[in-house]
């Protein structure tokens, strides 16, 4: 597909692991590729930014202008069928802004306080446009984060969350679990490669 790296070009990026049917835009920026693992059936669109300890499992879509920062000792994991909408940002590390310490990566560590914590997006979790996940965010299975929301804590499974900070507003339907089974069953019947 035009605009995406070919299979041969993907191998030359130096990723820790890369699966089948992976589409990464040539306009995406990838730093520390040796720390990034990508499963099967993953698409990373134009102007995305990925750096550090990142694991993308299977059937993942990262929309344009999204960024994932798995640096500072934290990791980011997106499990099967998870997704980021455009302009979403995920931070596994962040400077602490109380004023007790200085901020920015050009300052020696002794003068900074960096907060680091893993971020996990479980299966079927989705993040709406312009949303932010901060260190320690945990999206339980089926969590949907609405547009322009901020998540810094754990969610409960199959909930829809919105706001700053994000709060649960209602339950999310679980129909996609049935659809997942049907989708994978059809892949098996057609003898197409699946996870």
Describe this structure in words.
With 195 residues, the chain is mainly beta. The protein has helices at 7-12, 175-189; strands at residues 17-18, 22-24, 29-31, 36-38, 42-44, 49-52, 54-56, 60-62, 67-70, 76-78, 83-84, 89-91, 93-95, 114-116, 119-121, 126-127, 132-133, 138-139, 144-145, 150-151, 159-162, 167-171. The chain has an 8-stranded mixed beta sheet, with no helix packed on it. A 6-stranded parallel beta sheet has the order 1-4-7-10-15-18, with no helix packed on it. Strands 3-6-9-12-17-20 form a 6-stranded parallel beta sheet, with no helix packed on it. The longest helix has 15 residues, at 175-189.
Q: How many β-strand stretches? A: 22
Order of helices and strands: HEEEEEEEEEEEEEEEEEEEEEEH
Shape: globular
> What strand line-up does the widest sheet have?
2-5-8-11-16-19-21-22
Number of separate helices: 2
Multimeric status of the protein: single chain
Radius of gyration: 17 Å
Strand content: 25-35%
Poorly predicted segments: none
> Roughly how much helix do the residues carry, as a percent range?
10-25%
Largest sheet, strands/sense/barrel: 8 strands, mixed
| Ends distance | 22 Å
Mean pLDDT: 95
Structural class: mainly beta
């Amino acid at each position: 597909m035009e605009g995406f790296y070919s299979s041969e070009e993907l191998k030359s990026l130096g990723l820790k692991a890369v699966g089948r049917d992976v589409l990464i835009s040539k306009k995406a920026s990838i730093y520390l590729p040796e720390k990034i693992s990508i499963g099967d059936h993953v698409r990373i669109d134009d102007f995305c930014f990925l750096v550090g300890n990142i694991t993308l499992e299977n059937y993942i879509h990262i929309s344009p202008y999204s960024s994932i920062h798995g640096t500072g000792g934290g990791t980011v994991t997106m499990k099967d069928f998870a997704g980021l909408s455009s302009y979403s940002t995920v931070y596994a590390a962040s400077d602490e802004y109380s004023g007790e310490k200085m901020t920015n990566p050009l300052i020696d560590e002794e003068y900074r306080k960096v907060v680091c914590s893993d971020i996990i997006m479980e299966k079927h979790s989705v993040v709406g446009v312009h949303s932010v996940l901060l260190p320690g965010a945990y999206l339980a299975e089926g969590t949907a984060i609405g547009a322009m929301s901020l998540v810094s804590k754990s969610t409960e499974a199959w909930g829809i969350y919105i706001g700053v900070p994000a709060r649960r507003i209602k339950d999310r339907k679980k129909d996609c679990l049935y659809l997942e089974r049907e989708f994978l069953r059809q892949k098996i019947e057609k003898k197409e490669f699946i996870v």
